[in-house]
Amino acid sequence: AYYWWPKMFGRMLSETLGKWHFWLMLIGFNLTFFPMHIVGLNGMPRRIYTYAPGLGFERYNELETLGAFILGLSFLVFIINILKTWFGKHEPAPADPWNGATLEWAIPSPPQPWNFAEVPVVDSRDPLWEAKRAHGGSLPEPQRVSGAGIHMPKPSFWPLVTAIGIVTISTGMMLHVDVPVMLVGAFILFLGVFSWAFEPAG
Predict the structure, then answer these.
(1) Average pLDDT value over all residues in the chain
(2) What are the C-alpha distances in Å from 169 to residues 158, 166, 182, 187?
(3) Angle 58-87/15-41 helices, nearest 10 degrees?
(4) What is the C-alpha separation between 103 and 120, in angstroms, rounded?
């Protein structure tokens, strides 16, 4: 989430809150799940809601509960980080905040619908790094372009119809319902795919 957030939304998540999130999650996760290994080796059965007192499991289970609380707190910090970034004042994220090697970091953040105005030439495994080396170690911030002349498909509801057909077939198979339900799903699926494929481009 932290890595892709600036590319998806054009904003950087808070590094300070990110560090709090990391340490709380690391401590909470290990404090929740590591004691489970110890009590398991000491004979505590799995998937029970209670156990007899005096078996030596109490202290470990209290630690697990504390760890689960800390783990929940880490998720709360992450949500606060998202809300703070989304609604607070912020500088726009650069196109390449992590010094990336691949071409998705060579376009503005967030990307325009067509991604690249011109198809990039890829002649190495790490094309962005190679381009940076060729230009003295860094590239200028990419500019947004108009997109004139780039063909983009128009908005369509046929992908939704196709998805409804797939869900109908899958639900029919999972619930072992009558074959007609799956046939209706197959009809919806093929209607959606066919109509989507031959939808006019204009």
Answers:
(1) 89
(2) 17, 5, 5, 10
(3) 160
(4) 8
DSSP string, 85-120: HHHS--PBPPS-TT--SSGGGGS-SSPPTTS-SSPP
CA atoms lying within 13 Å on the CB side of residue 197: 7
Q: At what angle do helices 158-175 and 179-197 cross, to 10 degrees?
A: 160
| HSE value, Cβ hemisphere, 13 Å, CA-based, for 2 | 12
- Per the CB < 8 A criterion, the answer to whether 35 and 63 are in contact is yes
- The residue count for the chain: 202
Q: pLDDT at residue 180 above 90? A: no
Q: Could you tell me which of 139, 141, 191, 144 has the C-alpha nearest to residue 164?
A: 191
User: What are the Cα distances from residue 30, in Å, to 60, 61, 121, 155, 181?
Assistant: 12, 13, 46, 46, 47
Average pLDDT over residues 1-16: 93
Q: CA–CA separation, 170 vs 77, rounded Å?
A: 37
